[in-house]
Amino acid sequence: MNKATRKAVIAGNWKMNKTPAETTEIINAMKPLVKDADCSVVLCVPYVDIHAALEAANGSNIEIGAENCHWEKSGAYTGEISADMLVAMGVKYVITGHSERRQYFGETDITVNKRTLAAVNAGLTAIVCVGETLEQREQGITAELVAMQTKIALGGIAKDQLDKIIIAYEPVWAIGTGKPLPPTRRKRFAP
């Protein structure tokens, strides 16, 4: 990454954790710890915590993101949140393609692309997750798979919109296993 043209980002995904009160408490505790960070600090929180997170982070260098968005602007999509709704709340980032969305909710490369396009077109920065399972890793197809996921996710994204895209390499096989990605591999797949 060229730091002259792009700032590093550290983003945390809270998943289905924390209440609004806990969110406020955690962000207030974090603010002094990250005030001098030489990177963007992004917290992607559950929808119910967004308002509390935005209020707690106000005036700090912490930015707030959402954990997902729908590709449609509105409609009969019970439980979904549109990118425009997130922008109206003041959210700056959204995660698309997280491995858990793929695994548990049937997210596909095509729906990741739709969500990514909706996010970028609404003015959000999309944190697009790509990565392989242990089986895919053992088959030796990591590079091809990650390249394909990235290519599909970015379909229809204009060159001038690329500054609104962060590719997050998410080695699915390492999540919750305690097996970290070796440093030599990090350099190869890190954005």
Write the layout of secondary structure elements.
Layout: E1 9-13, H1 20-34, E2 40-45, H2 50-57, E3 62-66, H3 83-89, E4 93-96, H4 99-105, H5 109-122, E5 125-130, H6 134-138, H7 142-153, E6 165-169, H8 183-189
Parallel strand pairs: 1-2, 2-3, 3-4, 4-5, 5-6
Q: Would you give an account of this structure?
A:
By secondary structure, the protein is α/β, with parallel strands linked by helices. Helix 2 links the parallel strand 2 and strand 3. The longest helix has 15 residues. It has 8 helices and 6 strands. The radius of gyration is 17 Å and the shape is globular. The protein has a domain of 94 residues: Aldolase class I (TIM Barrel, Alpha-Beta Barrel), CATH 3.20.20. It has a 6-stranded parallel β-sheet.
Strand order of the largest sheet: 1-2-3-4-5-6
Topology-level CATH name of the domain at 98-191? TIM Barrel
* Poorly predicted runs of 5 or more residues: 185-191
Rg measurement, Å: 17 Å
| CATH class (first level) name of the domain at 98-191 | Alpha Beta
* CATH homologous group name of the domain at 98-191: Aldolase class I
Secondary structure tally: strands? 6
Largest sheet: 6 strands, parallel
Helix content: 25-40%
Number of helical segments with 4 or more residues: 8
Could you spell the SSE succession in H and E letters?
EHEHEHEHHEHHEH
The portion of residues forming beta strands comes to 15-25%
Query: Helices and strands: which structural class?
Result: alpha/beta
Question: Which CATH architecture of the domain at 98-191 is right?
Answer: Alpha-Beta Barrel
